[in-house]
Amino acid sequence: MIESSAALHDSAVLVTGGAGFIGSHLVDALFDAGARRVVVIDDLRTGRWDNISNDERITRITADFAAMSEDDVAGSLKGIDYLFHLAAEKHNNSIDAPGRVLEVNVNGTFRLFRAAVAARVKKVIFTSSLYANGRMSLPPMREDDVPIPTTIYGISKLAGEHLLRHFGGNAGLRWTAFRLFFTYGPKQFAGSGYKSVIVTNFDRILRNESPVIFGDGEQALDYNHVSDVAAALLAGTSPRADSEVFNVGSGSAVSVNRLTDAMLLVARSSLRPVNAAADWTAGTYRVCDNAKIRERLGWEPSVSLLEGLASVYDWMKTGR
Fold first, then answer.
1. Cα 235 to the chain's mean position, in Å?
2. With contact defined as beta carbons under 8 Å apart, do 234 and 5 qualify?
3. Peptide linkage before 139 cis (omega within 30 of 0)
4. Count of C-beta atoms within a 10 Å radius of residue 317
5. What is the edge-to-edge ordering of all strands in the sheet holding 58-62?
6. Calpha distance 207→200 (Å, rounded)
7. What is d(CA 122, CA 303) in angstroms, rounded to the nearest whole number?
């Protein structure tokens, strides 16, 4: 097993993007692991302060981390032990605003990592993405595949990994990067004005409307519950994770057809899905090989698909 809780006991932590979907779950997990205080930086474009508890141990900074002055970044890092860097321009933005994606995800990330070195942060944990790999077909993606990202977002995330290697090799920065696959769970209104297929179709089911499947529904994705993702990120504090990139996913691909059937089962709905014209995901199969994180860090997903979908459905029904 990993020793993340021991590493985090009585620690001070900075989380960029901590008011967002994954970040807010991470903040809760940090306190559960014994963190003493958590500083959260979020520009609130896709995050909300009410996603995190009203806890006096949390310092909230409403700001775009990439636009903060060097002095302000240095101030936010003062006394920080661990930096979890989650804030980023999302995949959809790379289509409409590629320059913004590069400015935030590459230039802003460079300035943040440089400041972390100057502040003598013990370690940086970085959320990369499956898009850094670039492939959308079998076989399952491995960390030692040659990455060939085909999107500006994927390029920016791979650049973030390389920046960690730069500061690790030239300044002794300890780091770990996690390539997240498709994270889902409560609070998921995934960024930049669009919702995940899970939230979108649960919305429809709650309105007694049939869920929509684009194309034949055989496109497959690797889903991982947000609580399991938060646990993986905590594992990044372990020395056994130093200077490594890990896939974070279930290791199993779920077709949209199977996903929709599971959602209808969870909702106890007699609705039947309807098919719409195929979109760009037709024929894709995005799944990871998660052997490395299992063997190196002792992490494995603990929430089944049905359990995870039930947590989303209950949250959407009750709002909490």
1. 14
2. yes
3. yes
4. 11
5. 58-62, 37-42, 12-16, 82-85, 123-129, 175-180, 244-248
6. 11
7. 30
Cα distance between residue 188 and residue 121, in whole Å: 30
Q: Tokens standing for 84? A: 């979890």
**pLDDT digit string, tens, across residues 46-90:** 899 999 999 999 999 999 999 999 999 999 999 999 999 999 998
Residue-wise pLDDT for 8-49, tens only, equals 999 999 999 999 999 999 999 999 999 999 999 999 998 999
> What residue has token string 């390389």?
162
Q: In terms of Cα–Cα distance, which of 180, 188, 184 is closest to 160?
A: 180
Please state, in angstroms and rounded to a whole number, the distance separating the CA atoms of residues 145 and 126: 19
User: Which amino acid makes up residue 234?
Assistant: L
- CATH of 4-183+224-249 among 3.40.1580.10, 3.40.50.720, 1.10.3210.10, 3.40.50.300: 3.40.50.720
Residue 107 DSSP label: I
Give yes or no for a contact between 249 and 292, defined as CB atoms under 8 angstroms apart: no
* The CATH fold of domain 186-221+253-289+303-318: UDP-galactose 4-epimerase; domain 1 (3.90.25)
**Is residue 194 within 8 Å of residue 26, measured between CB atoms?**
no
pLDDT, tens digit (0-9, with 9 covering 90-100), for 254-282? 999 999 999 999 999 999 999 999 999 99
Say what the pLDDT of residue 116 is. Answer: 98
Burial (CB count within 10 angstroms: exposed 0-12, middle 13-18, buried 19+), residue 50:
exposed
Beta-carbon count within 10 A of 172 CB: 9
Q: In terms of DSSP bridges, do strands 220-221 and 254-255 run parallel, antiparallel, or are they unpaired?
A: antiparallel
3-class DSSP state for residue 229?
helix
